[in-house]
Amino acid sequence: MRWDRLFDDLEAQASAEWEAERAALASESERVRLSRVSLRDRLLVLRDAKAQVRAHLTVGSAVEGRIAAVGTDWFAVDRGPASVSVVPLAALAGLRMPHADLLHSATGRAGQALRERLDLGFVVRDLARRRVPVRIEVVTGDSLTGTVDRAGADHVDLAVHDLETARHPSAVTSFRMVPFGAIAQLIVAADEAGL
After folding, report:
1. SS3 string of 93-119?
2. Which one of 44, 61, 95, 118 counts the least CB within 10 Å of its CB?
3. Distance, CA of 74 to CA of 109 (rounded, Å)
4. Which residues are registered as beta bridge partners of 92?
5. DSSP secondary structure letters along 31-100
6. Is residue 158 within 8 Å of 148, Cβ to Cβ?
7. What is the CATH T-level fold of the domain 39-195, as seen in this structure?
8. Half-sphere exposure in the Cβ direction for 156 (13 Å, CA)
9. pLDDT score recorded for residue 195
10. Residue pLDDT, tens place only, 18-41
């Protein structure tokens, strides 16, 4: 009888040690998995879940809405029926969302679609090709409106004019060369976004 209790006790100790070891391994595996999940991966999950977010930008402003698209170095926030903001990842200071969405986004997801491999330059060149009027908020806090004339590898040439006015030589008040690194967000009319 005493031997049965001894063996039961030893079995319980071994089982507890095994459970503790399994929990430690599972915890370490989760830490390793999370260390490989990028911000971009989490944005893709939030986009797929149609999550509402508030994106805080490095310039101090914020953009609220649903993540509509994610590229290699940018994401787009659908701000409602009026406009879409294209935000370079480098201009993002943080995201606010419900806790459940935050936890769900940690599952991560690697992008596969062509759109998810497009960089900011491609988006800006498309806006230039289609002559879409834009508002560019730059990291200095300035806000520029006009039409993208050209987009280089790392900058954009903007013909500055009122958004309500078509890009016509008489409407252009100046020209600005803006490096991609200085762009906090590009705001485009929702029906012109093409995202």
Report:
1. EEEECCHHHHHHHCCCCCCCCHHHHCC
2. 61
3. 16
4. 57
5. HHHHHT--HHHHHHHHHHTT-EEEEEETTS-EEEEEEEEE-SSEEEEE-SSSEEEEEEGGGEEEEE--HH
6. yes
7. SH3 type barrels. (2.30.30)
8. 31
9. 62
10. 666 665 555 555 555 555 678 888
